Amino acid sequence: MSKPFGTKHPRDGILNERQHAVIDCMRMKFTDKQSMAYLKSLGFDGNQMTLYRDKKRVNAVKMERLVHIAQFEFQHQHIDRIDNTELALKLMWQNYHIERDPWKKFQMLKDIITVQPYLSSYYDASKLIIENRPDIIDNLKNLQSEENGEDYKLSLPAKTLPDRARSEGSARSGETDLNRKF
User: Fold this and answer.
1) Nearest residue to 164 (alpha-carbon basis) of 125, 132, 128, 126
2) In 3D, which of 75, 79, 104, 80 has the Cα closest to residue 92?
3) CA atoms within a 13 Å half-sphere pointing along the CA-CB vector of 80
4) Which residues have C-beta within 8 Å of that of residue 38, sequence separation ≥ 6?
5) Going residue by residue through the chain (182 aa), what tens digit of pLDDT does each one get?
6) Which structural domain range is residue 41 located in?
7) Is residue 31 located within the same domain as residue 92?
8) Euclidean distance between the first and the last CA atom of the chain, given in angstroms as a whole number
9) Is residue 180 part of a domain?
10) Taking every pair of C-alpha atoms in the chain, what is the biggest distance, in angstroms?
11) Do residue 79 and residue 123 come from a single domain?
12) pTM of the model
């Protein structure tokens, strides 16, 4: 039984499941024949023209998908990577304590040390994002006040980023400094 063509993918709602499978084919550099076989193995029926239409659609919505990722998926992916890395470290330490062979324990310690810079960079990126977004800092303060039994008020930025840059201006007659970090 084939899957319906219009079913939206839960990841982004921009492309359907078949089009996400077509992206997989494009990533794996499949020929048209290989792509058709792959799609059929996933339960998608269709012909070569359907494949071409799906590829065209995927290419047409690249910017829309990028904006969606920047707005919504980045935060989830960032948190998932932190959680996965912390879980991996926890499991690595558990295996380290179970292992009896000194050489294997040494190898495990090397692996643990190898993973730590990744986790550190995730935390540094989180800190940088929070420091450069006053609305996030306000929301964190509001969450802390809620935990203390005070009212919770969601803080939204008073100005958008471009408005903020325009209002701050620069040294030369109101022009914005595009090289400034946000």
Assistant:
1) 132
2) 104
3) 5
4) 21, 24, 25, 28, 30
5) 445 444 444 455 688 899 999 999 999 999 999 999 999 999 998 899 999 999 999 988 888 887 777 777 777 777 888 888 889 999 999 999 999 999 999 999 999 999 888 888 878 877 777 677 666 566 656 666 666 666 545 444 444 444 444 444 444 444 344 444 43
6) 17-60
7) no
8) 51
9) no
10) 70
11) yes
12) 0.45
36 with 99, same domain: the answer is no
| Residue 97 counted as domain residue | yes
User: 81 near 123, Cβ under 8 Å?
Assistant: no
For the chain, what is the domain count?
2
Residue from 19, 81, 73 nearest 44 by CA: 19
Residue 86: Cβ within 10 Å count: 13
Cα 15 to chain centroid, rounded: 17
| Whether residue 79 is found in the same domain as residue 135 | yes
* 141 and 84, same domain (yes or no): yes
Domain assignment present for 163: no
